[in-house]
Design a protein that fits this description.
Layout: E1 3-7, E2 10-13, E3 18-25, E4 34-39, E5 46-51, E6 58-60, E7 68-73, E8 78-83, E9 92-98, E10 110-115
Parallel strand pairs: 2-10
Antiparallel strand pairs: 1-3, 3-8, 4-5, 4-9, 5-6, 7-8, 9-10
Length: 116
């Protein structure tokens, strides 16, 4: 069983940056492909970015490509999402999970709000 805890969200102006973290506990996540998702108010949860177990392969949603960077530190059991050039449409609760996601792995998420 893995517990995931997201942090690092906040309120930022358009064009600003944030770095999200996802700390895993309970067992190592080093063997998993890990993914960031987000859910905006009134919308379905959507894929943002994923990273292979050894950081060798990353994939991004078209909406964040070139602005967001996913990374991981398996020694620290932590996943990251560096977000730059933030836009109001990036406003959402951000979650991490393995890929494919497990329902029992969802954490509380971290709120990102981008003001125009």
């Amino acid at each position: 069983q893995v517990q995931l805890a997201e942090s690092g969200g906040g309120l930022v102006q358009a064009g600003g940056s944030l770095r999200l973290s996802c700390a895993a506990s309970g067992r190592t996540f080093s063997g998993y492909v890990m993914t960031w998702f987000r859910q905006a108010p009134g919308k379905e949860r959507e894929f943002v970015a994923s990273i292979g177990w050894n950081s060798g392969r990353t994939t991004y949603a078209d909406s964040v490509k070139g602005r967001f960077t996913i990374s991981r530190d398996n020694a620290k059991n932590t996943l990251y999402l560096q977000m730059t050039s933030l836009k109001p449409e990036d406003t959402a609760v951000y979650y991490c999970n393995k890929n494919p996601p497990r329902n029992d792995y969802w954490g509380q998420g971290t709120q990102v709000t981008v003001s125009s």
